[in-house]
Amino acid sequence: MHIAVIGGGVVGVTTARELIRRGHEVTVLERHELAGNETSKGNAAQRSYGVVYPWADPSMVFKALPWLLKQDGPLKMQLPPSLAAVRFMFATLRYAWSPGLYGLNRRAMLRLAMHSRERFLALESEHDLSFDGGHQGLLHLASTPQAMESYRETHRLLTEMGFESRLLTPEQVREVEPGMTGNGPLYGALSYDTDGTGDCHLFSRELAGVCEELGVIFRYGVEVDSLEADHRRVQAVRLRNSEGQMESLAVDAVVVCAGCWSPELVRPFGMNLPIYPIKGYSITVPMKDAARGPASTIHDDNFKVVATRLGDRLRATGFVELADFNRDIPEARINTIRKSVQSRYPGCADLDAAETWTGFRPMTPDGPAIIGQGPRENLYLNTGHGTFGWTLSAGCASVIAQVIEGEAPAVPLDPFRPGRFGE
Ligand SMILES: Cc1cc2nc3c(=O)[nH]c(=O)nc-3n(C[C@H](O)[C@H](O)[C@H](O)COP(=O)(O)OP(=O)(O)OC[C@H]3O[C@@H](n4cnc5c(N)ncnc54)[C@H](O)[C@@H]3O)c2cc1C
After folding, report:
1. Of 70, 254, 274, 331, which is most buried by a Cβ count within 10 Å?
2. In CATH, what number is assigned to the domain containing residue 225?
């Protein structure tokens, strides 16, 4: 089959790899000139298999307002909010208050994450990729005794689901992270031992190179306009090519991996994908004293900022902002990220010299990604991965390939079904 993959982010590239290995002809259509150049570019670099959870969490509802009101708080909203932002918030609240749904979705996401870890390790052993990656685990720091208490519950769930994790005392945290010499509050941490790190942008580009060697055609600088279909099947992808000409590319199947821009591609078929772009920010800077920087990756619950080591660089990331597709980078956001790093890893880098970035998490209001057959029999979706797309990419690529080939997927996909929002 000739399969077009729309979107060359980490999800599209991993999907293309699975499909070419199964003997299909694959064309990736990407409007940027590089793979992984949109949301997959400057993310927090965590492969956080044990952490995955839906944001539609009943307890989150009570945390959100104080976060919104606090000056350095992690949640921000453009005022007045757009209609799309208001709709997204109400939909999230509705899912958060659906009895039992959070627990079911969290377990479903953890199962997919477990599969993703296996698939990622297999992929990594098969190809020689350099992406500043590591397998040293991930720490969630507790800056209050209450945070430590909530980690005990998570630790129990992870153990039940087969993930290795440990509760650490502040002394043990400093043994694992000797560079953490700052005086930020610390009551301990939850160590997610099966998790890892890696530069998602580098990974996407390296894997795209491998895919090209395997025979995938990457068409960069092309904008997909629409899908040409009858009531049953998609016949072609209508695109504006790099010369600015409109063109139809004949296909046997299509996989939409277009992140935040996926909804517009399926809307003409009457499918509503309520993906909202949740904005975040990052800084990346070479470390001037690596011994004083993170050994792996930490989530600082005081500022809700993640600091990750990427080779000899530091990446720090934060904020959940509802501002539609606004790409501004206010200095105040970057200052909060700097403040968090400074409170944990003082002197590790010249934070004023950092490269800044903003990107949009393709969030669904209930939490799980959107994976499965779409509104035509040869139209598939692998999108809406929210804050865990790098983590889940390898597993999602594997299960969507199984769906396309009519095999039973390695993990149950019901919570991820594309049609669930209209039900
Ligand atoms: C601040 C921040 C921190 C994050 N941290 C983490 C983390 O630590 N771990 C983790 O797992 N995830 C993290 N994420 C989430 C993760 O980055 C995303 O889930 C992931 O990058 C989504 O990948 P994608 O391929 O679906 O989307 P994208 O990377 O956005 O790729 C979609 C591609 O489709 C292309 N496209 C769209 N429409 C068209 C069209 N019509 N024609 C042609 N091309 C098109 C776009 O140009 C784009 O390249 C974070 C996100 C943010 C914003």
Report:
1. 254
2. 3.50.50.60
